[in-house]
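Contributing new records

If you add data, match the layout below exactly. Sequence lines come first and carry their own label; structure lines follow with theirs. Keep one chain per record. Anything else will be rejected by the validation script.
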Amino acid sequence: MRQLRIPFWLGLLIAPMVLAQNLNYQQDPAWRVPAEAAEKKNPLAEQPELAAGGKKLFTRNCVECHGKSGEGLKKAADLRLPVVQAQSDGALFWKITNGNPDRGMPSFSRLPELQRWQIVLYLRQLSVK
């Protein structure tokens, strides 16, 4: 049986990415979304092509903490995890809008509402691979 060998240089390249990922992410139990906000429907839900704009907005505003593929750098959430993906569109929108200062998540209420909904569309495309 042949053994798979990863070149040392490749290991050095991959290690920082794996170490930076927030594998131990736990939701903040105090960061509760009001029921009314969680029930909000994404007005762009029937226009999945708009997720491309959400990806651009995510890249501009979120990658620094959440990583290029949503893997959750530093102490930020891994947005691909089922615990995140199971949240309603309204809950994700509320969290993007309000932020969580206790955990270092800024508010993105400065972005127009439809742009925040586009980010939610894009987040739905993320998944653990």
